[in-house]
Amino acid sequence: MPLAKTKEQRHRAFPAIHTERTTDPFVEGSTMHLTGLNIICSLLGAVFIHSNFAFRTFAGRGMHFDSIVIVGATSAIAQATARHLIEHCSCFVLAARDYERLELVATDLRNRGAQRVHTLLFDAEHRWGYDFVERISTLTGGAFPDAALIAHGILPQTTEAFLDREVAQQVIQINTCSVIALCADICRHFEERGRGILAVISSVAADRGRMNNFLYSASKAALDTYLDGLCIRWRSRSHELRVLTIKPGYVRTPMTAHLQRMFGAASPDRVGRAIAQLLLRGSRGKRYIPWWWRPLMAVVRSLPERAMLFIRQ
Amino acid sequence: MSHVHLTSWTGIPPPRPYRAVTIEWTQQNPFPDRDALVLPRGYGRSYGDGCLPCDTAILTHRLDRIRSFDTERGIIAVEAGISLGELLRITIPRGWVLPVLPGTGAVSIGGAIANDIHGKSHHWAGTIGRWIERFELVRSDGRALIAPTEQSELFSATIGGLGLTGIVTWAELRLHPCTSAKMETLTIPFASLDEYFALVPENEREGNYVVAWCDLSRKGRVRGMIHVSQFADDQCDGGGSASLPPVRQWQFRLPLSIMSRPAVRILNALRWISAPRQHRGEYTRIFFPLDRLPWNGLFGRRGFFQLQAVLPQESEVHLLRSILRRLWDAHLPLPLVVLKHFAPIPSPGMLSFPMAGTSIAVDVPNTSRARSTLETITAEIAESGGRVYPAKDVLMRPEQFQRMYPQWVQLERYRDPRFCSQFWQRVTGCR
Hints:
The complex is a heterodimer of chains A (313) and B (431). Chain A has eleven helices and seven strands. Chain A has 313 residues and is an alpha/beta fold. Chain A has a single domain (66-303), classed as NAD(P)-binding Rossmann-like Domain (Rossmann fold, 3-Layer(aba) Sandwich), CATH 3.40.50.720. In chain A, strands 3-2-1-4-5-6-7 form a seven-stranded parallel sheet, with helices on both faces. In chain A, strand 5 (196-201), helix 8 and strand 6 (241-248) form a beta-alpha-beta unit. The model of chain A is unreliable at 14-34 and 53-60 (pLDDT under 50). By secondary structure, chain B is an alpha+beta fold. Chain B has a domain at 182-394: Vanillyl-alcohol Oxidase, Chain A, domain 3. Helix content of chain B is 25%, strand content 26%. In chain B, helix 8 packs antiparallel against helix 9 (368-383) and helix 9 (368-383) packs parallel to helix 10 (398-404). Chains A and B meet through helix 5 of A and strand 5 of B.
């Protein structure tokens, strides 16, 4: 093959690895290759960021906490989370509605090696007239814990629940009002102290109302917006004030036991382990569990209403 | 109430949807509203249809809390759905171990009681029924606390009762002290059955774990290794349960079996060559070899059979030789053959499997020839006074079962009328 001397000849012989820039890049064949490479790099980057490896390697900004208060401690996800935190947390304060179950969970944690476990009866369905932080501080005989996980919530059992005034009030009270009221006390305390981790379990359902159970979606969406704002406020204030909005997909728990089919259902243990990791890493903002709900919900959010007719779950 | 696809661990019978109820708390009423036949189910590690309900499964895996743990006396009360592997992660750092452990950690306490499981420690520990102090049993007519001293008949019916006498919600067990999280294993090769029968009694001691693996891939040749393990004597506390390996549960099944005869010959040769004479390692390596790889998935969608039978002491050598001859004559791939000596330790269980003699366990991929060979072997065992393990059986005929376990009539009397398994229907015809 004769040696390519002029620019044109060189370009014809080696179009792909042609390096010299011409005046108009869009004329060149090499632009396509560059675009392809960009796509591949960004995909690899996304995978890398979403993989555990990236977090473990580059996070290094975990915020130490020694004690945690868990509201709704008898829920399946909260139980799993607490178990995964035993090695890292010396004091647990568990709040829940049912005394017998709460004692079973507390005894289990103690037997698994938790050093101090306190319990508090707490009913989110009715308004309460006391300062939650003060109540817990007297219970522990010292300071309010550095971290709080709010894990209670209900899911209406039927798709026609929104037609029932009582049920609608109950869902909004438990899922939204009680959580925001708790946050008021906890946030005031954390802001005074200048540090604290507030983690709240929301749901992927909050991202878009669907034909079934939009009552639940709405109650969680309100929570999402509240926490979104709080997160931005705290980001502007201090490095040590953190809000974590946990958005699990379908989880096989008693709350979802009546659902016939669940897309990509995770076990409570998996979700609990992920929450414990997020807390220990000091993550903030919205976190989807498992991670693939994030791109999926991005698509679902952008679907037109007609397309939502086909999403029945 | 939802539907789940269930099968046994071997994949026989093939999976199909069943109604299922998950119980979360010991104090809740586990029975579904409608009047259906139920069966409690843990992690589904039975090799046969003993873990498959006729109608509705009551899933107990969420009952995984510890109710009390006396670290001084080694007595632990746990809910029935906790797996043995998970339990060991909690007890071993504090110097206690379950005296009886099967080949996988993904067995629930409830399932262990229902099948009165045995392990590599049978020569000193017997079956798990001997270590149960008491348990709570929920029957369709109420719940009761059952102990060997009170309601002893119901206690004995529930130990090895295949989950038919009610749901065990929690149980209290005695543990055995251990010195470390590490185990030391000595591997002793043998080149014939006579050598095996000579070597086993002299290696069995209180507190150690003995099991023999056999290579039968060449016709007429028996060779294998006796693994003798005990806890290392280094008095370290293991550094908390986070450092201990978690129970791994594989969800994996190949479309076709890879267990052909040449493959098995290569695998066995590799295992024979690579086995270290002395080894020190994690306890899971000794106790839970089945959790190290997705063993059941390697046999493809058709699944596999495991024949586990105990051969009575008087005729064990003769019977064992006859069984091996039948297996060789059928030209079956035999990827796993395990021999174990059972001591004459009585179990409190009514329908308990172990008795004095030798236990043989053989894994065979599911083919029609394997089925017919194993059926002949089962018939031979039934005739000569041996027993087949109900937890691992899909082939027994009613008359064979009733001959091996004449006590079944008593168990049938204690069976809760709302409980039944496909196994019980098959071997007794009761509904």
